[in-house]
Design brief:
By secondary structure, the protein is an alpha/beta fold. Helix content is 35%, strand content 12%.
């Protein structure tokens, strides 16, 4: 239930201040965005409309489907939604009937939600991880998180595009491209990357194609597309959400999580998806908290008295623009009563080297083979080796722009009993947890750590793949390796391109992080909807 952002090589984080990038851009005039009745409405807003009889779940679903046709299939042609659920209207009708009879399941009742196309749904939609190799494969059951959404009354509206195989195929990939769906566009500047691998979920929710979406992350693939598309994204503690039924990269880092326009929506979605799954041992960990209603953490005074550590070393200094936005956000937090400890550096940042990637290679082979076995004999492919062979046999469709170097590296790895793998995994956990996040938070008595999520989005480049100007770690690396929670919130824009601020901390600290993120969001309200500009708002000197 990944994706892997390959942060060290992806992201023209200097794009906003890079003379080469700026010189190639004019100040292209964006066409007026089409008017949309549900523009920027929250889950609570939609519920209120249904309660007042102004809307039904059916009417809301119809409006979002029309929006997908107008924005995703034509107009800017975002390519963020791979398919719409053919049963969406029937599901909405059934939920409307429940409401009419006095039954409302909760805050998601009748709410349309998009899910990433590596999250299995046992319905008329496909689950392909963006690859034609899985066309026709029918999962035997819903992914646990998809089943939880249905039980909560959500309408699974459709499947979103993604970086194929959650960006774990090639070292030269373009974020947001898949063989099944083509290249997803960023609605803030159509020639910029939506980031990956949850690119479709990010672009779709930014463009108001649904109320909310679910993404997945192995390292950066919820928080990075969220910051690039002006969204709130939550990468939860490993084990808060079940991984069952999600096309994997690596069980030691994979998790699903919400991608929404507001912190309140993210909290509601997270609460609905969280649950203990006997088929996923990570969800039965002894330290895992009991069921939590994360909407109870929505406190506008949540920053007052909170001790926040600013991680300067490694997480600042790669983008002047992102640093300015982060410093302004920190000043806003201080104004809201937070106690700022600056710096509060994590001593082990940058120490993972190739060991994180090596662990992922081992686990990808083992975990993908296990997932494909779960699909059963009807699946067109049954192993990573089969996937590699399929790609070779269908190069024109699957590899017109980049190859499958990562997959071939993974196929050469041995079993998970290999001593080198086990040593690397143990070392990474120690460096990220005890000697990393836990150490600095204990030393300074912190409630959370803060840093820029990333820089403004880079230009999409199908010839060379994602840009490689970044020279720093990102908060996503240490939180993903540790399996700890991470929330990004919109903090500003650079030439019309969104930039987010990150709150992260110890395992199971989601209530605290949500409280802090919500207080910051409500005090600043930095999110602005996209204008579908042809390019970034850079004016020639």
């Amino acid at each position: 239930m990944p994706g892997y952002h390959l942060r060290m090589r992806k992201a023209c984080l200097l794009a906003a201040s890079c003379a080469v990038c700026a010189a190639s851009l004019g100040g292209a005039q964006a066409p007026a965005p089409p008017r949309f009745d549900l523009e920027e409405l929250s889950i609570a807003d939609l519920q209120q409309r249904m309660q007042l009889g102004e809307e039904t779940s059916r009417s809301i679903v119809q409006k979002y489907i029309a929006r997908i046709e107008a924005i995703d299939r034509s107009g800017p042609t975002l390519r963020s939604v791979l398919e719409v659920n053919p049963d969406a209207l029937a599901i909405a009708d059934a939920l409307d009937a429940e409401r009419h009879n006095g039954r409302v399941r909760g805050p998601l009742h009748g709410i349309p939600v998009l899910v990433k196309d590596n999250i299995a749904t046992a319905d008329k939609m496909m689950t392909t991880a963006g690859s034609q190799a899985l066309t026709g494969a029918k999962p035997p059951a819903d992914a646990f998180v998809a089943a939880r959404l249905r039980d909560a009354g959500a309408v699974i509206l459709g499947k979103t595009n993604l970086s194929e195989w959650a960006n774990f195929r090639s070292t030269h990939s373009s974020s947001g491209w898949s063989g099944r769906g083509g290249q997803t566009k960023n609605p803030y500047a159509l020639d910029r990357s939506p980031s990956g691998s949850s690119s479709g979920s990010g672009a779709a929710i930014a463009a108001n194609l649904a109320a909310a979406a679910v993404g997945t992350e192995t390292d950066g693939s919820i928080v990075s597309p969220s910051t690039s598309n002006g969204l709130v994204g939550i990468k939860p503690t490993l084990g808060l959400l079940s991984r069952t039924g999600i096309v994997p990269i690596a069980h030691s880092q994979d998790t699903a999580g919400p991608m929404t326009r507001t912190v309140a929506d993210a909290a509601a979605l997270l609460a609905a998806m969280a649950g203990v799954d006997k088929a996923d041992s990570a969800t039965t960990a002894a330290r895992r908290p009991a069921a939590v209603d994360y909407t109870r953490s929505l406190d506008t005074a949540g920053l007052r008295g909170a001790r926040l550590g600013i991680v300067r070393k490694k997480l600042f200094g790669y983008s002047v623009a992102a640093d300015h936005i982060a410093d302004a956000a920190i000043a806003d937090m201080k104004q809201q009563g937070a106690v700022i400890v600056d710096p509060a550096n994590i001593p082990t940042l940058g120490s993972f080297g190739d060991s994180e990637f090596d662990v992922l290679l081992y686990e990808f082979k083992a975990d993908l083979n296990k997932y494909l076995a779960w699909l059963g004999p009807a699946s067109p492919v049954h192993s990573l080796k089969d996937v590699i062979a399929f790609n070779d046999a269908h190069k024109d469709q699957e590899m017109p722009f980049f190859g499958q170097e990562i997959m071939t590296m993974a196929e050469k790895k041995g079993p998970l009993t290999t001593p080198a793998y086990r040593a690397a995994l143990a070392k990474n956990h120690r460096q990220a947890r005890q000697l990393g996040i836990d150490l600095v938070m204990t030393k300074y008595r912190l409630d959370a750590l803060v840093a820029p999520t990333g820089g403004p989005s880079w230009l999409t480049d199908l010839v060379n793949g994602d840009s490689s100007l970044a020279n720093s770690d990102a908060p996503s690396t240490v939180t993903s390796v540790a399996g700890y929670p991470h929330i990004t919130v919109p903090a500003g824009q650079v030439h019309g391109l969104p930039v987010g601020i990150s709150f992260f901390g110890r395992a199971w600290s989601e209530p605290t992080l949500i409280k802090l993120a919500y207080a910051y969001e409500q005090a600043t309200k930095r999110r602005t909807p996209p204008l579908f500009a042809p390019t970034a708002e850079v004016t020639r000197p």
